[in-house]
Amino acid sequence: MQEYDVIVLGTGFKECVLSGLMSLNGKKVLHIDRNSYYGEESASISPLQELYRKFKVPGPPKSVSRGKEWNVDLVPKFFLATGQLVKILMHTEVTRYLDFKVVEGSYVYKSGKVHKVPATEEDAHSSDLMGMFDKRRFKKLLHFTQNFDKRNPRTHQDMDLDKTTTRELFSHFDLGQNVIEFTGHAIALHSSESYLDQPCMETIRRIRMYSESLSRHNYSPYLYPLYGLRELPQGFARLSAEYGGTFLLNRAVDEIVMENGSVKAVRSEGKLFHCKQLICDPSYVPNRVRKMGRIIRVICLLNHPVKNTNEASSCQIIIPQTQLNRTSDIYISVVSYSHSVASDGMYIATVSTAAETSTPEKEVQPALELLEPIMQKFVSISNLLVPNEDGRKSQIFVSRSYDATNHFEFECDDIEDLYHRLTGAELCFGRSRQVSHNSDDD
Predict the structure, then answer these.
(1) For the chain, what is the total number of helices (H) and then of strands (E)?
(2) Interacting residues of 161 by C-beta distance below 8 A, sequence separation 6+
(3) pLDDT tens for each residue of 319-343
């Protein structure tokens, strides 16, 4: 009979991060996955032929002969240079297994056109998103967030920031609707309008994090690993293995054995593995999760950069919901051969959003039009699943499905929340250092 502190089912990004963190904490960890590859829902598909097979699309065309040069993320996301994920990577030293490259641009959609997101005073000065007076007011807001210190009331401009809503904060700086839109959605990365009536501290923190991330790398605040996101679960799996974690890939999970409402063991191919705690993604426990919505993702293969992005080989584009009379934003992420995820001169652009109607593909049409001409599209619609309970009683801790955003901030919130429920402790980091990246980006 084999006993473990923690059993992890599935090698998705979040499961691998938690597996690495638990191993780092001295726990005896067993990691089981029914697939022969890492990543689960957030896997990267390679070679390219596999992507066509997965989506049952005939191809690829003869012109795309070097299929092994492709690594296509099913759930593409970037990370902010000073964001949560970078702190986790630095804390665990998983950075030694990864190489990063800066994403070349950050854009926002307005009136049918793509514009650079202004996040510095210089950008504001040259931005075509604002008139002269708005530029001045926006610079004042940037100046305020950068100099803000919670402990120093002199930096609060006579506002009680625990009570002031974001709407009132924006009103204090007399910002116009255009400025509020790109600030809230493309800089503070809020995915709906509800933030406007919540305390403004969170928005100040997010604007500041975006600005600080941008100041690290100039082009944009985002980073992305060479060879795609599959490097992330693999890096954390290596960390777990280094600290004694055991991995069983390509293994069926037959049953989760319970006793008095609490997890006791996992039965896999006739063998019983005992554990005190279980971590898994929703697919392993369909009776313990509920559907909160649907996500549409459209992976597009292109042989050209996206128009109006300054020929960027990688970029992020956000379409704020108000631009299309929606309740959720649409996200576009673009990566290419420059990140070693596609053949020379080729691009992978992925459109994602929360589906709001019974015809999700129609909803993303304006985003797809920005990418034309598209060589090939791969459409997926998946359920957004969340756990029914916090896991403290059953000791089964279930991650949420990946959301439609194309950055990792909300997924890291889920990791921190799971970690807190698993251990009773907050996930704390030492001082975050800078992630090194290729010198050709400076």
Answers:
(1) 12, 19
(2) 150, 169, 199, 200, 201, 204
(3) 999 999 999 999 999 999 999 999 9
